Amino acid sequence: MKSYVYRIRFIVSVIAVTVLPIIVTGVVLLKAAEQALLQEKEKKLLAITEQLDFALSQDFENVLREEGLQNASREQQIAALNRKLEQLTDQIATAHPGIGVGYYARRLDAIITYGPSREMGQHVGMPIAPDHPGRQVMSRRSADVVVGPQVRGEIMNAMYPIERNGEVIGYAWANELMQSIDIQLAGMRQGIYSIVGIGCVIAAVASGLMIHRGEIILQEIKEGLRRLSLDLSFRMKPAKGEPGEIFEAINKMAGDLQASRSHTETIIHSMESGVIALDHRGRVTAWNEAATRITGVSLEQAMGRDYEDVFRGEEEILKALSDALGEGKTTRDAEWSPRGAGRARLFVKIGTFIWKSPMEQVLGAIIVMDDRTEWKRMESSLAQAKRLAVIGELAASIAHEVRNPLTSIKAFAQIIEEELPAGHDSREYTGIIVDEVERLNRFADELLLFSRPDEEHHVPARVGEVLDQTLLLIERSAASQGVVLHKVYRDSPASVLASPELLKQVFLNILINALQALQDGGQLLIETEAVDGQVFIHITNEGPPIAEEHLLTVFEPFFTTKKSGTGLGLAISQRIVQAYGGHISARNVDMGVQFTVVLPAKKEEA
């Protein structure tokens, strides 16, 4: 009896020590294997959907355009797409027996091909249900695998959104009947049961337990690293023993990476220079706010896209990046002007650099952009001022040399005219000589004014009053041309130190040019404002724009696009304003052309 009890105890102990752990281990392994098989099926089906997306070299609309059916009926378009894509889906379905593949067109709301066509062709043209998971895949723009009843029956269905030109046009799918998967699972279960039955030794049980434990730890590490790749704020749960030390090290590494990334991103987005980073394939991985301001392309529009698509048509940048990524050649101080429609012309200095890891592995390229537009304009203005000064000195010499002979010519012509009897034919010619001498004298006066505008007396002058006096001179001409004058004096009491008469000439020159640009009528806007110790006078007309290359040249002496005129009007105006410490600029605006006179405001005496 006692022996029997001992045997029962022994059997129970053996069962407890061997059979039960083996059974438990077998169940765990079976579940893991089933899950692994299902995951493998999901990966395979997703890989097939990506293959379908890659094999579709163009979007559905291009196919219809090639067939000339972009305006055809829905049924005709579905039939045309099915003819074009049926062979492709049949080939892929043949390469993967038991797998159903196809495409769905979002605009047509129809299945346009379903392979193998001999079995599934009847489903072509059918829409999907309103709650079909494919609609969620298209709206989220992310692939998904769903198990359940669908068009083909109870299936495992992998769906992949098809994006072209930033728009989801449909999705591709690959599915397999759950019946086929269940058969494979049944075969796998039988094999596992056999292995579990054979492995009835304590060493196998111990090994199985260790492996099972190791798998759990590795799975947690794998899942933790996967979560960290998506979200650096994720932290793994604390654990005991060596796994706990590993989890702690991973958490510390994630914290360091998060701090480093936040610090780097803050620095990059705070920079005045545009910074763009590309990976080794040429896709955008970083894009700061300054790059958006310079290029006109937002972060959302650029991230993840190939640089050739982002900078299409911009040859300077494309060549610089191609040299950096393809040949490892960097670019320094290259100039580029963005060609964005409707944007003011910019002058940008670009430089490219090779992006390397600490192990000298090439990770991609970095391009740095500096907006040099204002610097370029200042450089041009300075060069123009120097040229004007040199020309002014020359003009003064010419004017002085010309005026004396002109005085003698005029005097002798008048003497000759007085000696001739009344009605003599030659008196007409002497009158012409005198008139022409007077015209040359006026031209010499203009040259002298151009060369020495600062010799005039400087007195406090109210800008609004000078403008009103000047506008009286052109009101009649403006009315006869159908030009409407608008005045907006935001700071009418503003005063400057200048000669009112010379200021009147500056404004008159600009206003006359504006009237000449408004031959068919329009609006002429005169505005004043005082900002930060400076007075701004804006004169804007609705005339045609000035060519970009002429916006600075219009202030050069003797430059004119008119058939008549000396080309000195705006040059003299610029010289007068510069003599008072200001400047004149011209730019094209939405309304037309705007000339801006900037003068230092008069400082109030204590």
UniProtKB/TrEMBL annotation:
Ranges for domain PAS: 260-305
Origin: domain of life: Bacteria
Database matches in Pfam families: HATPase_c, HisKA, PAS
GO biological process entries: regulation of DNA-templated transcription
Taxonomic lineage of the native organism: Bacteria, Bacillati, Bacillota, Bacilli, Bacillales
EC number: 2.7.13.3
Top enzyme category: transferase
UniProt-recorded name of the protein: histidine kinase
An example molecular function term from Gene Ontology annotations: ATP binding
